[in-house]
Amino acid sequence: MHVVILAGGKGVRLRPYTTALPKPLVPIGDQHAILEIVLRQLASAGFSSCTIAIGHLGEIIRAYVGDGSQWGLEVDYCTESSPLGTMGPLVTMRERLPEHFLAMNGDILTDLDYADVLHRHRASRAPLTIATYAREVRIDFGVLTTEASRVVAFTEKPTIDYRVSMGVYGLSRATLDGYTAGLPLGFDELVLDLLGSGSPPHAYDFDGYWLDIGRPDDYDRANAEFTSRKSLLLKGV
């Protein structure tokens, strides 16, 4: 099984941490970088090869990870000379990719079964599988619904429930057909194109542990909780 780790972003939301370190190498706990945790998890799940898409401070990632042999992985790299968005790097490396593969952000902390996402993607025959997670937002105001300058409904401080993308995707190489290598392509654009063509993505709903390390609140929470959750996230380490 093959995985592409998207690690080319600048990590603007985590400054000043990411001024000198690429976001996937920010520390979690006392001993591990987030990218190391992800690579250990992928190897444990049965992935054997990995391509890391690098850009901002990418040579530091290359120096840290090397060929991946310390984690039992074969790692190679794809370098972005300019920002290509979430999916653009995949178009650039399309000819190097297997028929079905996993793609993911390099800055998430989760106990998601990565192999199962890819297996379910293959079984679904969908062009794209998106791992999703339940979130909620509490609105700290009374919400009004108006029509023709009249208030027709009122809800006091409602909570909105929704599902978000976890930044983990099952993909088929053919899904990238028709896009031009070297041009930016965002996850949003790809999803809208698939919906518009009548080929909707498949959802892989997950309700375990997931944090987006690129968000300062989630990063602080990850460090606060890592010791107590290490056995869940890094089984056998």
User: By helix and strand content, what is the structural category?
Assistant: alpha/beta
Choose one word for the global shape: globular
Number of strands: 13
Percent in helix: 25-40%
Q: Count of DSSP helices?
A: 6
Distance between the ends: 22 Å
Strand content: 25-35%
- The Cα radius of gyration reads 19 Å
> What is the string of helix and strand elements?
EEEHEHEHEEHEEEEHEEH
Characterize the largest beta sheet: strand count, sense, and whether it forms a barrel.
7 strands, mixed
Unreliable residue stretches: none
| Spatial strand sequence of the major β-sheet | 5-4-1-6-11-8-12
Q: Residue-averaged pLDDT, rounded?
A: 89
Word description of this protein:
The protein has 237 residues and is of the alpha/beta class. Helices cover 27% and strands 32% of the residues. The chain has helices spanning 34-44, 58-65, 88-92, 114-124, 187-196, 216-233; strands at 2-7, 27-28, 32-33, 49-54, 74-79, 100-105, 108-110, 128-138, 142-147, 150-156, 159-172, 202-206, 210-212. The strands form 4 sheets. Strands 5-4-1-6-11-8-12 form a 7-stranded mixed β-sheet. A two-stranded antiparallel sheet has the order 2-3. The longest helix has 18 residues, at 216-233. The protein is globular, with a radius of gyration of 19 Å. The mean pLDDT is 89.
